[in-house]
Design a protein that fits this description.
The protein is mostly helical and 154 residues long. Helix content is 77%, strand content 0%.
Length: 154
């Protein structure tokens, strides 16, 4: 379902990657099961339309009403399966978004905007999130080097 790169990428951006992967599998399996049931119902409906069309052709000489009913049934089934697929994809995106690990800088900015920390607290938390230029630690930028620190180190 997902390549190793996609799984590794997900592991870095969500809090509980194994739980999220399991829930994503459940979402896709549920979507596939619903689509299979819809396709099975469509096949039964189309088979009934063929039988009715054959009987209508024998009795009345025209099978046009059954052909129309069969075509409408096929269109409804196609629309239903498409909606199930779109709903499954939307549920998957929501699940990953809901489990996304917060970015340290976003967390600090949200705390400041909410009034939970003052300016000195903001500076302290930003230093903690970015790391100080001397120790080279930090979480922003993926490799630990924020652009400001790179300029300071040169």
């Amino acid at each position: 379902m997902f390549s190793r790169d996609q799984q590794g990428d997900m592991a870095q951006h969500v809090r509980y990657p194994r739980v999220v992967a399991g829930l994503r599998a459940v979402v896709y399996l549920f979507g596939a099961a619903v689509a299979a049931v819809l396709l099975g119902a469509t096949a039964a409906f189309l088979a009934a339309a063929v039988v009715v069309g054959a009987l209508t052709a024998l009795v009345a000489g025209s099978g046009t009403p059954a052909l129309v009913v069969g075509t409408v049934g096929l269109l409804v089934a196609t629309l239903s399966v498409t909606l199930v697929a779109l709903g499954t994809r939307r549920a998957d995106r929501w699940l990953v978004q809901a489990a996304r690990a917060p970015d340290p800088l976003e967390r600090v900015a949200d705390s400041y905007v909410a009034g939970d920390i003052d300016e000195t607290g903001l500076e302290r938390e930003l230093e903690r999130a970015l790391g100080t230029p001397e120790d080279g630690t930090g979480t922003a930028g993926g490799d630990g080097d924020a652009p400001e620190r790179i300029l300071l180190q040169e």
